[in-house]
Amino acid sequence: MHGPTVGIYDDRGLDGAATHERPGQRSLAEGFAARVVAGHPRLDVGCGAGRYTGVLGRPVLGLDASAVMLDACRARVPGARLVLGDLEALPFARGSLGGAWSWMSHLHLPKVRLPSALWDLHRVLAVGAPIELQVLAGTYEGDDLEGDEVGGRYLAGWGESDLIDVVTGAGFEVADRSVVVDGDELRLRAVRARTLADTVGAGMRLLVCGLNPSLYAADAGVGFARPGNRFWPAALAAGVVTRDRDPLHALRVDRVGMTDQVKRATRAADELTAAEYRSGLLRLERLVGWLRPGAVCFVGLAGWRVAAGRHAVAGVQPGLLGGRPVYVMPSTSGLNARSTPDDLAGHLRAALDLADRS
């Protein structure tokens, strides 16, 4: 969370709290409550003074980074379980929550940090859990927005297609006609899918792209997680990562991001369609053009061949993706007996070298 913004809420956040309460949004909160996964608590992310916490159903958890706002919420919603915490480091167990309501909270993050925050939200939600996400609409990003009644808060605006891309990459399914612009606010409704969330952000040295998650990997929360898959041993041997099966450490320490060409998880890659590969590559092109990693490494040739060139061979590709160089390597699946562990490590070293040279 943006530290100075938290301080502003501690100092004068209550001054503007009442002005944001709208009857129409209360009905949306009640509708959200009806969709929460049964038997799980729901989370009010950035609950503030609790203007919606009391209508989200029970059991409800309220999380906020401002102790002052939490005190106000506690007075307004007796019985709510409140947590002082950061929406970028949620203090909840994997799959423990049945839904998340984020009303003008994630807009306080720099845009390049939203994917990681949504990765964490995906982690703590059960499969099928709904999210309601409202942010600022538009292109503004900074801490001096004209007309901000509180003043000094960091605010980031989003366009519809950009927000859909980030939420989809974070492992959520966005239904048709579930994105609404209401004045200067953008509202999105989605559901936590049984898939992996991207671990991506600014300053990536290399972006690794798999074909799509297996159901095994989706349930484990780690790409290439199946014991017979050789990606992680090869990546360690190549010096691409420094910790086994830890994509968040890879991003934050090794500056290696991870995504998938197709987000839908399957038992086998042959369940995917050519249309999914092509649509996924378009999303990736926009992601790469935005975050500008040193290079992109596709693990497995099938998806790249379908979407970009059916005669492609392993190695550096002749074209760019989102303005960045591309390396395509053989699959690391144990089913690919033609590639040895040393071969796979060599490909990853070559991809990292391409990234560093670029």
Secondary structure topology:
Elements: H1 3-12, H2 23-35, E1 42-45, E2 60-64, H3 67-76, E3 81-84, E4 99-103, H4 114-124, E5 130-137, E6 141-142, E7 155-158, H5 160-169, E8 172-182, E9 185-192, E10 206-210, H6 215-220, H7 231-238, H8 247-252, E11 256-260, H9 274-291, E12 296-299, H10 302-307, E13 315-321, E14 324-329, H11 341-357
Parallel strand pairs: 1-2, 1-4, 2-3, 4-5, 5-7, 10-11, 10-12, 12-14
Antiparallel strand pairs: 5-9, 6-7, 8-9, 13-14
Helix pairs in contact: 7-11
CATH structural architecture of the largest domain: 3-Layer(aba) Sandwich
- Coarse morphology: elongated
Determine the number of helices (DSSP H or I, runs of at least 4 residues).
Answer: 11
Q: How many E-type strands?
A: 14
What does this protein structure show overall?
With 358 residues, the protein is α/β, with parallel strands linked by helices. The chain has two domains: 3-192, Rossmann fold; 206-357, Uracil-DNA Glycosylase, subunit E, CATH 3.40.470. Helices cover 32% and strands 22% of the residues. It contains eleven helices and 14 strands. Strands 1, 2, 3, 4, 5, 6, 7, 8 and 9 form a nine-stranded mixed beta sheet that branches. A hairpin with a 2-residue loop joins strand 8 and strand 9. The mean pLDDT is 95.
